[in-house]
Each structure stands twice: as structure tokens, then as C-alpha cells.
């Protein structure tokens, strides 16, 4: 959702410059403008928190992937080493004199 609003200072200046009392509608307009600014501040804050959290999650995902690839490589190398070790048990090593 995107709120677009005009110059807030012009409304406040027009209200404070005039010698007339604000009508109830003008009071509501000022209150709504203030609430919209508050909502905009909250949205900015939550967007920043979401972006920070997303960046951290992506970095953590990358680190987990690298760790998993390393673990997979270790498992493959250990498997290959075990195959060669077992093969060496069944090789006939006759010494010739």
C-alpha cells in the first residue's frame, strides 16, 4: 500500500494563520494526516526490519549450503578411502625371495 499526500505544512500554516476557529472537518483532516504520517513511519520501520532479516537469512542460507557441500565432500572422500582400504585387505601380497 502506498499513501501519497500533499504538503502537510501548508495545511498547518493555513490553519494557524487564520483567525477563524477550525471546523470539525478540518480537525478530522489534521488528525487523519497525523495518523497517516505515523503509519508511514511504522511501515518504513517494518520494511527496514524485513530487509535486515531477509539479508541475514540469505547469508545464513549460503553458509549452510557451503557447510553441507563440505560435509558431502568429506563423506565421499571417506567412502572412497574405505573402498581402497577394504580392497587392500583382499589383495594377495606374496613376497618373493
UniProtKB/TrEMBL annotation:
Record has Metal-binding as a keyword: no
Membrane topology according to the record: Single-pass type I membrane protein
GO cellular component, one term: membrane
Pfam family for this entry, one: EMP24_GP25L
InterPro entries: Emp24-like, GOLD_dom
Membrane-crossing segments per the record: 64-86
GOLD domain mapped to chain residues: 2-91
Entry keyword set: Membrane, Signal, Transmembrane, Transmembrane helix
Places the protein is found: Membrane
Family the entry assigns: Belongs to the EMP24/GP25L family.
Protein name: GOLD domain-containing protein
Organism field: Caenorhabditis briggsae
Amino acid at each position: 500500500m502506498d499513501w501519497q499526500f500533499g504538503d502537510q505544512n501548508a495545511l498547518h500554516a493555513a490553519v494557524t494563520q487564520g483567525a477563524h476557529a477550525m471546523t470539525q472537518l478540518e480537525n478530522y483532516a489534521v488528525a487523519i494526516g497525523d495518523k497517516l504520517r505515523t503509519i508511514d513511519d511504522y511501515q518504513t520501520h517494518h520494511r527496514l526490519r524485513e530487509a535486515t532479516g531477509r539479508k541475514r537469512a540469505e547469508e545464513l542460507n549460503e553458509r549452510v549450503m557451503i557447510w553441507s557441500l563440505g560435509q558431502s565432500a568429506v563423506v565421499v572422500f571417506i567412502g572412497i578411502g574405505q573402498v581402497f582400504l577394504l580392497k587392500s585387505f583382499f589383495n594377495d601380497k606374496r613376497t618373493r625371495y
